[in-house]
Design a protein that fits this description.
66% helix, 8 helices, elongated
Amino acid sequence: DQLYKTAYQESGTAMPEYKPAHLQFRDYIDELLGSSIVSVSDTPYASLLKRLENSDWVRYGHDKYQDKAGDVCPYCGQPLDRHHFEEDLAAVFDKRYEQAIQSLNSMCENYKAQLNTAALTLQHNTGFTGPLSDEYQSRFDLFMEKAHRNLDAIKAKIAAPATPATIDNQDLLDALQQVNDTVAKINAEIR
């Protein structure tokens, strides 16, 4: 009787098998996250920002306040030659820097898309009420915890590109493999 309940839904139709999820990360993720993305410009302003190690802070502040400050420095309140300042700032964040930031953002979007696809696949695995359902849920929760930890590290890297970051993709893949192992056990029960 329990085997029948496991394999068939209340309607008497066969329960669909659970689907495993898969992730495939690009090799350059660790290299990109571990690098310090800084300007290579040699202008006086770029040299100052490098010496102060605050290019991330300046970039963030500029993006957030440039339109609100007008011709006044949003940090010290002194008059600012906005045109000259914008030219100096553009020279600091040169083409190489902008390309690295674009690569970082693209990698983040790809990473999130893969994790979302995997999470949705696993979330749609429902209906099984056998003893393995608790194991499946706890392994899925662990996978999601590790995915969120990696995403938080990537978000921190985007916020501070000069600061190297690390994520543990192998740990995440191992957690996913545990979920998929439980999927295989559940499917064996369903069959």
